[in-house]
Design brief:
Layout lengths: L2 H21 L4 E2 L5 E2 L1 E6 L15 E5 L6 E2 L10 H15 L4 E7 L16 E7 L2 E7 L23 E9 L3 H11 L3 E5 L10 H6 L10 E7 L5 E7 L7 H10 L3 E4 L18 E8 L5 E3 L7 E4 L8 E4 L12 E6 L2 H8 L2 E5 L3
GO molecular function: deoxyribonuclease II activity
Pfam families: DNase_II
Catalytic activity: Endonucleolytic cleavage to nucleoside 3'-phosphates and 3'-phosphooligonucleotide end-products
Length: 357
């Protein structure tokens, strides 16, 4: 082999390896743009008192590298926020028109829509991945995110109430499991691109992307997912054929723990705390940000729950269903972790909860 041919071969290997490393960088990202295994955000509601100076765009942040909530110096509508940094990868993938990357955006309250599409699950999220890895963002924000063509923005409708979400980085081998879970959730997909190279391993997402409806949707399904760095998560997915409150009727009994639940408690549309089953679900009524700052669950569109303090198992779950009589008949889900830092962070937010009558 000539010296010139050797240099050419080494160069091709280098650039080929560089391309693989670049492809592997799809991940949840923090505000510095660094990849993280997972992160959680809690967007705070807009305060009514003008003296506070709060805009409804401030948020708390927690990820796999830090031990407790941090109040972000960025606003959630900024491209340098954790969501902005993470979604930048979507816009880059869209602009490149690459056949090596897939994405799927879903929301029952899609951007620029009027009201909600109740023919689909009450579920909101975004997936971006390649054959190496990607991320799954599960959130509670209506009309978010915009379609990839429009770039990053945060809806004005998302300022008033609190919102929550979790982003998890997954290796590609987990996407076959996610594929089946999404089928159960029946998402309203408003933007997607799944090149044919993914169709052999993924069955349901390409069909959902093509607006093909399946008549064989499981009633409910529980599965274990493993993040890119090895943290285990349980994902609960229920269809509208399971006409029950997901937290009281399934999750609390499956996890064998009493749950404190924070979901949007609209007046005359909430379910009361439930102690009728072996494991109870109590509605959180107020969220504590600091000694001087708190807000009511009526101001909170977030969806999360934790094990009651003092119980053996310390679960934290984040999802997209409310405890409401109407949403007992909607599909959706929750993803749960026993990460200690996550549990302690959420436990500190609970000011008080409603006992059973």
């Amino acid at each position: 082999m000539t010296a010139r041919l050797q240099r050419t071969t080494i160069g091709l290997v280098f650039f080929g390896l560089f391309g693989v490393l670049e492809a592997a960088t799809i991940a949840c990202r923090n505000e510095d743009g660094d990849a993280v295994d997972w992160f959680i955000f809690y967007k705070l509601p807009k305060r009514q008192d003008k003296e506070s100076g709060e805009t409804g765009l401030e948020y708390l942040y927690l990820d796999s590298t830090i031990g407790s909530w941090r109040r972000s110096e960025q606003l959630i509508n900024a491209t340098k926020s954790a969501l902005g940094r993470t979604l930048q990868q979507l816009y880059e993938a869209y602009a490149s028109k690459s056949n090596n990357t897939a994405y799927l955006l879903y929301n029952d309250g899609a951007p620029k829509s009027v009201g909600y599409n109740r023919n689909f699950g009450h579920t909101k999220g975004l997936l971006l991945w390649n054959k190496i890895q990607g991320f799954w963002l599960i959130h509670s924000i209506p009309q978010f995110p915009p379609i990839p063509e429009e770039g990053y923005d945060y809806p004005s409708t998302g300022r008033r109430n609190g919102q929550s979400g979790i982003c998890i980085t997954f290796k590609y081998n987990q996407y076959e499991i996610i594929d089946s879970q999404l089928l159960v959730c029946n998402p309203n997909i408003y933007s997607c691109s799944i090149p044919i190279t993914f169709h052999q391993e993924l069955i349901h997402m390409p069909q959902l992307c093509a607006s093909f409806s399946s008549s064989k949707i499981p009633v409910r399904h529980l599965t274990t997912l493993q993040s890119a760095q090895g943290q285990s998560f349980l994902h609960f997915a229920k269809s509208d054929s399971f006409p029950n409150d997901i937290l009281a009727g399934w999750m609390a009994q499956q996890l064998k723990t009493h749950l404190l639940s924070e979901t949007w408690q609209r007046k005359r549309q909430e379910l009361p705390s439930n102690c009728s089953l072996p494991y109870h679900v109590y509605n959180i009524k107020a969220i504590k940000i600091s000694r001087q700052s708190y807000f009511s669950s009526y101001q909170d569109h977030a969806k999360w729950c934790i094990s009651q303090k003092g119980t053996k198992d310390r679960w934290t779950c984040i999802g997209d269903l409310n405890r409401s009589p109407h949403q007992a008949f909607r599909s959706g889900g929750f993803i749960c972790t026993q990460n200690r830092n996550t549990y302690q962070a959420f436990q500190k937010l609970v000011l008080y909860y409603q006992d059973c009558d």
